[in-house]
Amino acid sequence: MVFINRIVFSLLLCCMAGIQAGFAQRVYVQYDAATPQAAYASKQLKEALLAQKYTVLNDQKGSDFLIRLGVDTARLESEAFNIVPEQNSIIIMGGDNRGMIYGSLSLAESIQHGMRLKQVQKRSEKPHYPFRAIKHNTPWYSYRSSSALDQHYETVRDVRYWEAFLDMMAENRFNSLSLWNLHPFVYMISPKNFLEASPFSETEMKEWQQLHQEIFRMAHERDIDTYIIPFNIFVSPEFAEAYGVAHENVYPNYYVSGDTSEIVKRYMRESITQMFQEYPTLTGLGLTLGEGIAGMTPQQRED
Fold first, then answer.
1. pLDDT tens-digit profile of 25-64?
2. Which of 65, 119, 189, 261 matches a 20 to 30 Å C-alpha distance to 161?
3. Which tens digits make up the pLDDT trace of 154-205?
4. Are 188 and 278 in contact (CB under 8 A)?
């Protein structure tokens, strides 16, 4: 009986060693390191592999398994991906960088749930809806005065919050982020010809700019489009006081008459132009046609 027990125990040890060896496979992830989106996709895969006790190598030499990331615009639609397992390798191809990220996240999720690399089956996915967005109201210069918004002020100014938020968006396949407040420009730029519009010192302005640069950089890395949405027509209190216009078109007012004086038009145009010049990875600008343009016809609002 003792002899049999020893045999059983030895067999259990062998099985456990085999399982450990399986998870300790040496894996190399091949990707284009010059592409931020490929670097992000690779990072997510590597973290999933390490969490499951795989060994991730920095060189293909000596690896047991290869995972290759790439883009195939000729065969795949935008945002679509294929995962194709071969002997001791898995190829992830996206129709574009976003599809490559989604394919990598899909495989990372399978690994996190305990699937072994040898168990991965061929699969393909593509999106049903092309535009999958989140509307994010900022707690600074917000569209309403409320403690429900104000209490998050410091949290939303933390880059770590945005890193986690953007990771969540990528994991859930959101592809667009829109940031909303009454008048975002003075939090992003120092208007060159309207310096009186800014409420911030040079040091404070640099902090705001660094925050926005990081938000857009991380969004670009995850291939998430970004849009700034101001509530029209609003300005900063400092601008209204300095130039004697738009006195009602400031926080915390809303549903006020539109001020279309020439100086407001010029200020808005120059602020928008400068914003895009200073934030080249920002995707676009949206408009609201109701909050601060009372008394105007639909055509006037569009013009």
1. 999 999 999 999 999 999 999 999 999 999 999 999 999 9
2. 189
3. 999 999 999 999 999 999 999 999 999 999 999 999 999 999 999 999 999 9
4. yes
> Strands across the sheet with 284-285, in order?
133-137, 176-181, 225-230, 284-285
Q: How confident is the model at residue 254 (pLDDT cuts 50, 70, 90)?
A: confident
Domain ranges of the chain: 21-125, 133-302
> Are 197 and 235 a contacting pair, CB within 8 Å?
yes
Token reading at 49: 């592999």
Q: Which residues contact 91 (CB under 8 A, 6 or more apart)?
A: 67, 68, 70, 82, 83, 84, 85
Question: Tokens 């210069």 label which residue?
Answer: 141
| DSSP string for 182-249 | S--GGGT---TT-GGG--S-HHHHHHHHHHHHHHHHHHHHTT-EEEEEEPSS---HHHHHHHT--SSS
The CATH class, in words, for 21-125 is: alpha beta
Crossing angle of helices 36-51/202-221, nearest 10°? 70
